[in-house]
Each structure stands twice: as structure tokens, then as C-alpha cells.
Amino acid sequence: xxxxxxxxxxxxxxxxxxxxxxxxxxxxxxxxxxxxxxxxxxxxxxxxxxxxxxxxxxxxxxxxxxxxxxxxxxxxxxxxxxxxxxxxxxxxxxxxxxxxxxxxxxxxxxxxxxxxxxxxxxxxxxxxxxxxxxxxxxxxxxxxxxxxxxxxxxxxxxxxxxxxxxxxxxxxxxxxxxxxxxxxxxxxxxxxxxxxxxxxxxxxxxxxxxxxxxxxxxxxxxx
Amino acid sequence: xxxxxxxxxxxxxxxxxxxxxxxxxxxxxxxxxxxxxxxxxxxxxxxxxxxxxxxxxxxxxxxxxxxxxxxxxxxxxxxxxxxxxxxxxxxxxxxxxxxxxxxxxxxxxxxxxxxxxxxxxxxxxxxxxxxxxxxxxxxxxxxxxxxxxxxxxxxxxxxxxxxxxxxxxxxxxxxxxxxxxxxxxxxxxxxxxxxxxxxxxxxxxxxxxxxxxxxxxxxxxxxxxxxxxxxxxxxxxxxxxxxxxxxxxxxxxxxx
Lengths: 223, 256
Fold this sequence. Notes:
B: mainly alpha
């Protein structure tokens, strides 16, 4: 049938209760192309948000899908495709981060200086950021400051829009643990953003003096 | 649950769409994945040089699917500098067994929006020949209708350009690359000019421009070569062919 993806059928034993002849559930293993189409945007966004730089994002995404291709026969449908791909992704991202640390580039993350004008403009009119790539840059810098566990839950909850139970399945953790991580991640994210503001906007620029500066924040950051 | 501050929420809202991939991102990564698994697995097992590959028969037997696979592998070969195009076991199997009427290889766009690669195991013999894009899952082979279609995300078109003669495009670019390999950039340019005349808006115009830049620079026509390279290269282009273009024309890569 032209134009139709061929799907192979495999049987996965979905119920393992030890009973002979336990229920066997028909499982349609997706093709590589289906997995790619379904998960590429997620992989592309996530590798960047978890600290993979623009210059290496292609390589990391490629490695994820080469691994997906090679291990697709192992996928038994016990989790969602997204969860399965995410676990592959995390292994590769961790290797990348370890490699980056060995090369001594990690320390650059915490000392990143943000253009003051960007933050000032952002606070003055956040909606303008929608048209600016700088918002993404600031976000990446803030996420880089979080631990991996916190970054993952914050990205999944506040950027991917996943629920906590979904995240718990994704990261194979208890729901309460995820709630706790998310609470801590949000607090840290807020605090780091406030520090960035403080660094970016000198005290003398806050308050009345700032009103003379186009796009600057009136009265500093209200928290 | 702790809520984010209004500033943080505004930032997240503004940045949410920042990391979305473009169709070009999707296509580029898929091509590199296909090249890697295809060249390492399938290509290593069965290699056929472009000069001996019958593109007419490829087009006749496989239509769009084989054309796409061939094109992907050609681009991979151009990029890697291997100058070889490989044919997969599936394609060869299909060549020997296909009985149905040929389908016109007139588009790069399919319902899946992409080319796919095939498994390397022995199960490929059970695949229906030329029945649509080949799939990769190396599992038990029971071809079924599109059972999982309802469960997957909507697909996006990858290629904007179409061509009526993908095999012809592939052949000309492969010939041009072969001329380069023989150290004859002028002959390569002749082939590329032929490609430009026949396929002014073909599916492989980007690749043509990249190979043309290399040929011009190797012919000592650096100003023209660099102009062509400028057209081919972009700040976001990261293919291996781009690396070849930069090397041939002595263009330094700008850092991110």
C-alpha cells in the first residue's frame, strides 16, 4: 500500500503474574520513522534545555536516534515511546555533561554574564521577549544552574506541560519525590533569576533614576 | 506547590517556543542518522559505486522510496567524502522481486515526510517490495495496515522542493563528485552546470551548490568558489558537506 508505513507486530508479555499462560497483549511496535516523527521535537527541545550547547545539539540528537534505531527491537511497550526515548536521551546527555565537565567548561555556566539590557527590557515588558531569542538564552543559563534532577522536572512541568504523575513515570520516581524536586527547582529558578536581575541592573539604575533609561525597570524588581 | 514568580513565568512563556525544531533541523538530523546507520550497517555490507548503479532501474522498480534512500545515501557520501552510494539489501531484494507497476519518483514528500532506512537482518525478505517507505523496526515481520497511525503525532512535510527525476539528479551529482575525485574540477563543473540546467529547482540544489563551491575552489577560481560557498553555507549549516566546502575554499568556521 503506497505511502503507508509498514508496521511490524511483536508480542510483549505485558502481564507477568507468574501464571502459566498469563495474558499476552498484542503490542504494535512502532517503526523507527514513527518514533522519530513522534519524538524528534521533544528530543530536540530537551537536549538543549538540559545543557547541550547549540554547537553540539545536532550530534547529541543524532546519537539519541542512532541508539533508538539500534535498540528499537528491545522496546517492549512497557512504557510509552516518549519515556523510552527519554531514558536513552538522558544517558547520552549525562555522558555529554560529564565530558563537558572534564573539559573544564562547566564553570563557565555559573559565571555567565547576561546583557543587562535584555533583562531590563524583559522585566519592563515581558511580552516583548516572545519575539526575542534572548529569552531562550536566559532560560538556558538559568537551567544550567540547576542540578540535572531539578532541571528535568522543571522543564517537563513548566515547559513541556506534563503533569507530576507523568513526570514521575518519565523519570521513574515517586510522585512525592517529583513534587518535592519541582518545588525546590522552582524556588531555585526564581532565586537565580533574581540574582541575575541584581547583577544585571546596578542599584543606581533602580528606582527613579531608571525611569530615564528606555526599557529599564521602574523601581527594580518587585518580589 | 511553590509557584514561580511572575517574572519567571513571563520568561518561561516567552522562551517556550524558542527551542522548537524547524523542518530543516528534523531533516538534517534524520539524514545524519540514516547516513550513520546506513553507511555503517548496510553500506558496509553492500557497496555499489555510483558509476555502476543503474538509476533507471532503481527508479523503475522502487519509485519514490528507493529514490529517497538513494538520495540520502548519496548526500551522505558527498558529505563524508566517501564518493560512494550504497544500495540496501532491501532495495536489492526489491529489485529482484518487484512485480508491480513502477510508481513515479516525482516527489520527496510522502505521508511520512521522510526517507527511512531498513533493517539489516534477514527478515527483510518478508517485506513487500516497493510498497511504501521502508521501516526500521528489526522485529518479527508481519506487515499490517497502518495500525499505529492514530496514535502518532501529525507528520510534517520535510521537503519543500520536488523533482520529477530524482534519479537523474542523483546521477549527475554523483558524476560531478566522481570527477572531483579524479582531480578534474572542470569536468565536475560541467556536470553541475548540466544539473543546474535540467533541474533549476530540483531537490538537490543545495547539495549542487556545495559541490560547485568545492569544484570552483579546486579549479583555482576562489572568488567564484567563495561566492558559491557563501550561498551554500549558512550560520546554522552543520553538515559534513559544509565542512568539505569550508576546507576546499579555506573558509574558517564561525563559532557559535
